[in-house]
Amino acid sequence: MRILVTNDDGIASAGLAVLAQAALDRGHEVKVAAPAEEYSGASASLSGEEIDGKIALVDADPPNMPAGVECVGVKAAPALIAFLASYGAFGEVPDMVLSGVNLGANTGKATLHSGTVGAVLTAASHGIPGIAVSITSGQPQHWDTALLVTKFALERWESREFDGRILNINVPDVAPDRLRGLKPADLASFGAVQAQIHRGDDTHIAVTYSAETGREEPDSDHYLLTHGWATATLLRAPVNDTNGQLRTIDLEELGITSSSAPDAAESQGDIDVDAATVMRKT
After folding, report:
1. Which of 65, 164, 205, 229 is the most exposed place for a label (fewest CB within 10 A)?
2. pTM of the model
3. Rounded to an integer, what distance in angstroms lies between the CA atom of residue 266 and that of residue 264?
4. Nearest alpha-carbon partner for 29 in 102, 78, 120, 93
């Protein structure tokens, strides 16, 4: 398999080498393309540094990267990197995307904002399966534990029929013999960080952050992580909710008179959208 490795901590993060090694140990071909700078909290943003319609690339030498792995720094958010990869920007389209190993857990509501997770969800929206991996520490001491868990997950994920879901893995920063195992988990109902907002003046908003705590949820990723388990959670790229109660609203309810409405033929006809124009706008 061709595997693209990316992250949101940037091309200088040691977590990239862990995922690359896991993929190599499984016999896969690896290419690393990660943000030239940190993009934590970027979610699925498609932002990047564009010059004359081109995304800038930089030379890269991630720490501890296995020999022979081609690496490139991209001046773009991780989701944009995954998006570009799905169109063959870094060679052949990858068969899978691995993102991480993120410095700090991505659990609960925090997954909404994670660039690590956003990259894999973006790949999934283009038909490419993937795994996001995070470790609980900002300065990990036990990369070997993350490697062990990633290889185990990858072995099972690589042969799974793709159904639009991605796998979000979180690993406690403990020695392998201190790990209790890998357990499926629900997203915690609260995020990892609480923000306090204070309006300072007309030109500034003061923001302070603190760890958020919530009620104990024994089946949640946050709870299990704090009790020594690595966790695995299935996530999906955006889908419409078919159980909603929306209904069709006619022109009269919208306050539009028939004289101001478009011709019936025009309103009922198809609208042609040029794909190139849409891509340019994104």
Report:
1. 205
2. 0.84
3. 5
4. 93
C-alpha dihedral sign at 104, 110, 111, 116: negative
Taking the CB of residue 68, how many other CB atoms lie within 10 A of it?
7
Kindly report the CATH number that applies to the domain delimited by 2-242.
3.40.1210.10
Residue pLDDT tens, the chain, 282 long: 999 999 999 999 999 999 999 999 999 999 999 999 998 889 988 888 877 778 999 999 999 999 999 999 999 999 999 999 999 999 999 999 999 999 999 999 889 999 999 999 999 999 999 999 999 999 999 999 999 999 999 999 999 999 999 999 999 999 999 999 999 999 998 755 555 566 666 666 666 655 555 567 899 999 999 999 999 999 998 888 888 888 899 888 888 987 655 554 454 445 454 443 334 333
DSSP 154: H
Chain mean position to CA 33 = 14
> What distance, in Å, lies between the first and last C-alpha atoms of the chain?
29
Task: Please report which helix (H) or strand (E) contains residue 166, including its range.
Answer: strand 165-171
Tokens of 77: 């958010």
CB proximity list for 195: less than 8 A, separation 6 or greater: 207, 208, 209
Q: Which H helix or E strand runs over 134?
A: strand 130-135
CA distance 255 to 184: 50
Among 122, 182, 186, 189, smallest CA distance to 156 is for 182
- For residues 115 and 45, is the Cβ–Cβ distance under 8 A? yes
Both structure tokens of 122:
């973006």
Kindly state the tokens that stand for 50.
Answer: 């564009």
Total residues found in the chain within this entry: 282
Q: What DSSP state is assigned to residue 206?
A: E
Q: Write down the residue that tokens 């946050």 correspond to.
A: 222
Task: Look at the block and give the residue holding tokens 């932002």.
Answer: 47
